[in-house]
């Protein structure tokens, strides 16, 4: 295999050196070569994500399109007069060094989530007053500013911003703002950032955006990569870096370590599929129903009489294969519990619209009726007889049903005070499920993203509180419906929300 140049930390200084040492022709050739290598590595990463069925987990499109646009611009420049002043200026201001630095930073990271992603945060009162001094704004929708993050990694908990700013540019900025180039006074005095250096102003925005963002109840850590700066390059660089660090920024300066070859880091770059699950997990009603549904187990279900909502789920099952690909890997080897309220709601739905097969699976999974008292191995064999998918030996059966007194959990201090916000907002089954998992410190499994989002919103301002550990399955499954006169059908007398696993349980007291 021929040797390939690895995309790395090209800088503006490199571009200038190549211009001086090799001339315009060699410079454009070098830029083209580096841009093609960069784009090829991005395509290799995309292909890897697709093979792992994770392409939708990483926001890569905007960054890729920017690099592709840069390549097309360079290709056009290669066809014009290389000595023209305009061509020279365009080559010297190429965005490729920045894109290479972003990609190199990404390859030093793990569990990538997004490139070129904007995060929003509320303006300060002074900023709001200044921005809206001559026009009104809707108080129900407070004005916001945004910060652009170049690389979001560590499953969202690390933000990386790359700036190819030079010491010369910082000197100009200092002069424009009237700073004494030998003094650091004033770098961190302007709370609203109006008198800040552009780099400090950008850093403030990143910190405020991170403070307004939570990932698993934690705020992201902000990293700033400055490939063209050295503390010795200008008398004000050292104090400026001190200011950035005091703001809470992790600053990275040359020499920056070379990233490993892409092939060696691909598995680490892909977002993690595993959640830090607890040994015992709390299964909510939506996933109990998914474990029973004919949609998850049967190979041939007549679709002509089914609601379009159900037909879409059948089509998606062929792609997602929910049990073997999503649920069984999570459930295997763990103790399975559910609240009595979740079990009761599941039973009501299955008794009302479940098929014969769905009712039989419920009795087996929960250890009810004829299967009561039967050991796990026999339950798994019975469950296997009603499914097209192999049932893992480590799938614990039956599910243990837990009686939960939410009022007692709150009264006895097993939950933080802010849990009252969740208690007041959620209704019935959801209240018992999510507050029980929180109180016990175990992972709650659900396909109900709506409720998980409500909880995160309620706890966003609780800095010292770790909310409930929730894993959201990206796919939901409904029950097929009653079998009437040999014809599969949903129960037309009830709404889709009432017959659906995910929809019924997603109701809150909003």
Low-confidence stretches: 1-10, 17-22, 482-510
Straight-line N-to-C gap: 61 Å
Helix fraction, binned, reads 40-55%
Derived structural class: alpha/beta
Number of strands: 12
Enumerate the strands of the largest sheet in spatial order, edge to edge or round the barrel. 1-2-3-4-5
Q: Explain this structure to me?
A:
The protein has 510 residues and is of the alpha/beta class. Helix content is 47%, strand content 11%. The protein is built from 22 helices and twelve strands. The strands form three sheets. The chain has a five-stranded mixed sheet with strand order 1-2-3-4-5, with helices on both faces. The protein has a five-stranded parallel sheet with strand order 8-7-6-9-10. Mean pLDDT is 82; it is low at 1-10, 17-22 and 482-510.
Summarize the structure.
The protein has 510 residues and is an alpha/beta fold. The chain has helices spanning 12-51, 61-77, 85-92, 96-107, 125-131, 167-177, 198-211, 237-246, 262-269, 285-292, 294-297, 308-320, 322-331, 340-353, 356-366, 376-384, 406-411, 419-425, 428-440, 449-459, 496-499, 501-505; strands spanning 114-122, 144-153, 158-162, 221-225, 250-252, 280-283, 335-339, 400-402, 443-446, 470-472, 483-484, 487-488. It has a five-stranded mixed beta sheet, with helices on both faces.
């Amino acid at each position: 295999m021929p040797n390939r140049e690895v995309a790395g930390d090209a800088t503006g200084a490199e571009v200038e050196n190549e211009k001086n040492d090799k001339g315009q022709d060699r410079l454009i050739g070098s830029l083209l070569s580096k841009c093609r290598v960069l784009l090829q590595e991005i395509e290799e990463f995309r292909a890897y994500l697709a093979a792992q069925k994770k392409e939708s987990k990483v926001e890569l499109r905007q960054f890729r399109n920017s690099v592709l646009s840069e390549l097309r611009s360079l290709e056009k420049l290669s066809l014009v007069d290389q000595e023209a002043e305009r061509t020279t200026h365009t080559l010297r201001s190429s965005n490729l060094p920045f894109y290479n630095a972003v990609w190199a930073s990404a390859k030093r990271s793990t569990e990538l989530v997004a490139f070129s992603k904007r995060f929003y945060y509320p303006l300060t009162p002074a900023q709001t007053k200044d921005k809206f001094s001559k026009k009104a704004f809707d108080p129900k929708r407070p004005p916001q500013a945004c910060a652009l993050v170049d690389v979001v990694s560590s499953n969202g908990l690390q933000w990386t911003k790359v700036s190819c700013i030079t010491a010369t540019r910082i000197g100009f900025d200092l002069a424009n703002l009237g700073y004494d180039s030998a003094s650091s006074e004033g770098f961190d005095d302007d709370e609203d950032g109006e008198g800040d250096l552009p780099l400090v102003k950008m850093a403030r925005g990143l910190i405020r955006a991170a403070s307004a963002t939570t990932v698993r109840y934690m705020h992201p850590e902000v990293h700033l990569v400055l490939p063209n700066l050295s503390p010795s390059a200008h008398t004000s660089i050292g104090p400026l870096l001190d200011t950035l660090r005091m703001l809470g920024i992790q600053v990275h300066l040359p020499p920056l370590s070379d990233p490993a070859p892409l092939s060696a880091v691909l598995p680490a770059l892909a977002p993690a599929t595993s959640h830090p699950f607890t040994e015992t997990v709390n299964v909510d009603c939506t996933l109990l129903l998914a474990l029973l549904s004919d949609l998850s187990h049967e190979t041939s279900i007549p679709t002509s009489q089914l609601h379009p909502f159900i037909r879409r789920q059948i089509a998606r099952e062929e792609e997602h294969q929910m049990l073997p690909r999503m649920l069984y890997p999570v459930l295997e080897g763990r103790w399975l519990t559910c609240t009595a309220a979740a079990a009761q709601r599941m039973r009501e739905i299955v008794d009302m619209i479940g098929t014969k097969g769905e009712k039989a699976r419920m009795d087996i999974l929960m250890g009810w009726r004829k299967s009561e008292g039967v050991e796990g191995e026999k339950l798994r064999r019975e469950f296997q007889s009603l499914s097209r998918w192999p049932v893992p030996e480590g799938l614990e059966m039956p599910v243990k049903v837990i009686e939960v007194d939410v009022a007692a959990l709150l009264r006895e201090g097993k939950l933080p005070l802010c849990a009252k916000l969740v208690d007041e907002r959620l209704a019935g089954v959801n209240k018992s499920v999510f507050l029980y998992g929180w109180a016990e410190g175990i992972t709650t499994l659900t396909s109900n993203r709506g409720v998980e989002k409500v909880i995160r919103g309620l706890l966003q301002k609780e800095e010292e509180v770790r909310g409930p550990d929730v894993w959201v399955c990206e796919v939901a499954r409904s029950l097929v419906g009653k079998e009437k006169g040999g014809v599969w059908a949903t129960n037309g007398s009830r709404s889709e929300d009432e017959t659906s696993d995910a929809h019924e349980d997603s109701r809150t007291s909003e």
